[in-house]
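Quick one, T. Sequence first:
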Amino acid sequence: MIKNVLALCVVFSTNVYALDVISEDDLSAISAQDGISVLVALPAAGWKANEVSLTDTNGINASIVAGYATAGTIVATTVGFNACANAACTTAGSIKFDVDMVGDHNGVAVGGGAMLNMAFSLTGGATKMRFYIDDIRLRNGPSGINEVVLVDFLQNHVDVTPIGSSTLFAVQLGNESLGHMLHFTNGNFGTIDFGTVAFLDKQTPTNSLRFGFKLDEFDITDTGFDINLDGLVYTAADFGKSLMDITLSDIKMGGAAAASIGSIGIQNLKVTNLVLTISGKS
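Structure tokens:
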């Protein structure tokens, strides 16, 4: 049997040197890469999507409520984010991702074992994050039939301003030396103001329950998410370490012109050893 073989050799190097001895001085000047950094520069208006949706394909079980075993979709419209470099968020900064890998050196585990660490921070002049959301809607499946607005965010955005550090959180796969798969290195965001939030009535959309929603002293530093057999688990040994306040202000029922019944809220909220589990429905 005759076998024809075509060999292809491509050489990209233009300089070829013989092996040579490297002096200790030359060797000491050599350094390896310390992971990688990725900078994402956002446009001035930030990044936005028309909608983000979640569809329940089988509706409500007939044993609970009969006649609703059809698909339904909950939709958040005009969602997105920006890294703001000024108060009005007309100038954008950058988002920085740092990726570092640690592992074994000469068979000895460094720092407790191999780990992939990915840190998220603000840079390029960015001092806060702005999250965009217009409203939350409910529709009968993906076709958009009988779509109604459930919750309207009249401010259309929420600003989150970190205090103390621009490094916000880290994702650790492997050893997880920080104690969580997703760990909030700096979760001190001070005041988070959602503006006026309105819950609309489907029959008469001009009628609503509306109020200003604000969180003060919001600090989730050193908390994080993990995955176990129960699902996605959020744990916080000291949730609300700065004694968080939750305020519902200028509450109105019936419409925008209705009389205000005042404000209510919770002051100095703190929970020790908080565990919140999110799992699918069987």
